[in-house]
Amino acid sequence: MTTSYTLTILDRQRITLEAALNLMIEHCKAQLAVGEGAPYWEHRKSCIEMLERLRSAPLSDDKH
After folding, report:
1. Looking at residue 59, what is its pLDDT?
2. What per-residue confidence (pLDDT) applies to 57?
3. How do the pLDDT tens digits run along the chain, 64 residues long?
4. Domain containing residue 42
5. Which helix (H) or strand (E) holds 24?
6. What is the model's pLDDT at position 58?
7. DSSP per residue, 25-50
8. CA count, 13 A, side-chain hemisphere, 40
């Protein structure tokens, strides 16, 4: 079963979210490098997918 969510965030929150996703991807890569497996493969995959969707989303003119 797949559940879909809609999330509205400010541009400054988008920057923070992108940084957090990148940090999690790096953390997962480090864990995988020392031989850890699950759940890091799936976490990394999910973060990459979310980052791609975030980057493809249109930016607003919000200056907050």
Report:
1. 76
2. 87
3. 889 999 899 999 999 999 999 999 999 999 999 999 999 999 999 999 999 999 998 877 655 4
4. 11-56
5. helix 11-33
6. 83
7. HHHHHHHHHTT-BTBHHHHHHHHHHH
8. 15
DSSP SS3 for 3: coil
Let me know if residue 41 belongs to a domain: yes
Residue 61 maps to a domain? no
Tokens of 38: 């699950």
Domain assignment present for residue 4? The answer is: no
Q: Quote the radius of gyration of the chain (alpha carbons, Å).
A: 14
Structure token digits, residue 24: 């999690």
The CA distance from 56 to 64, in Å, is: 21
Q: Does residue 49 sit within a domain?
A: yes
Locus of tokens 């929150």: 13
